[in-house]
Amino acid sequence: MINDSLWSIFVNASLINNFVLAYFLGICPFLGVSGKLNSATRMGAAVTIVMVISSMCAYGLHALLTVINAPYLQLISYIVVIASTVQIVEMVIKKASPALFRTLGIFLPLITTNCAILGLALFQTNKGYDFIQCLIYALGAGAGFTLALVLMAGLREKLDLVSVPDLARGTAITLMIAGILSLTFMGFAGLGSH
Amino acid sequence: MSQEIHHHNQAPVPAASDTQDTNEFIKGLWLQNPVFAQALGMCPVLAVTNSAQNGLAMGLATMFVLIMSNILVSSLRAFIPRQVRIACYILIIATFVTAVDYIIQAINLELHKALGAFISLIVVNCLILSRAEAFASKNTVSKSFLDAAGMGTGFTIALLCLGSIREILGNGSLFGWQLFADNFENWIVMILPGGGFFVLGLWVLVFNWLQQRQENKEPPSHD
Questions:
Q1: Does ipTM surpass 0.85 in this model?
Q2: Is A84's Cβ below 8 Å from some Cβ in B?
């Protein structure tokens, strides 16, 4: 049923159906952490790692839930897995690189409530991807999220240097720019093979 | 969120009068509107508001989860250990979201398909978790209920504002009723993702403008 090539899954997740700009997932960090290019890159990397791990776990969980025939537990078990993954990633980063841990600060635990990650787990289940396809899908989604965040951060750093009307400063102008970015990304629609 | 905590530290505790209870309800409607003022729970706001009906349904579903989880969190606030509170809140929220998911599927299958994964994604709506953490875990059940009802209504109003503008411009209709004659050219862009960002940006702009006008009115100076 699903025989998309791995490359088309990757392009689809990262560009054509970009999680932030086409599916509106992960808007909160997109608006919150995109002020500085530096932290945007790091945030993107952390989210990608959590995405890959939790997508793997979600694949296993879905298989288990199908065996014991309890689909109604899907949502609850996914969110528990994601919360634990974030906790583990947090501990590992704290141990391995205290500097990075300090830079990410509060945004690290907040990855738990990043809907892009839960959305990824739900979408891959709906699409019926196999293990390798899930892995590629997660990598593509992470790459797309990072790309959107970095683009936005770059634009906002430039925006600091120009004069914006007082009224539009902050959320309003950021949303307008996001809208233009989103329109730009629609140009990638032609890349899809189907 | 921090603004919210601050507000409650200042509030006079003993004067638990009716006016204060209504304040808990009113504040969520406009002044601290979760979408326009606090920018919380943006993902569903943008994703499902391509028509007024979808926006309304999403708003009501979120309001239900918000009220139920606020009540439960508030009534269990003495029993939940501080260290694991966030995990407990998320479990409570996930349970109610699963219920809502099945209820909508039973009532209206079309709507369930239109909203798709975004019903499940109510779990990670930061609005709900932030109300549980900032309000329900510190206040009585009745106050938490009022707070949830107010915030939920504010959220629904915001979704309706967005959904109707996008449907009117993008599809020439409102709640499925055709508004314009045939020669109206639909602004397709408004239904597309980009339009969601534009319309929300405009609403935030309008909100800021009204807010600023109100502030300017108090000391009678320049317009």
A1: no
A2: no
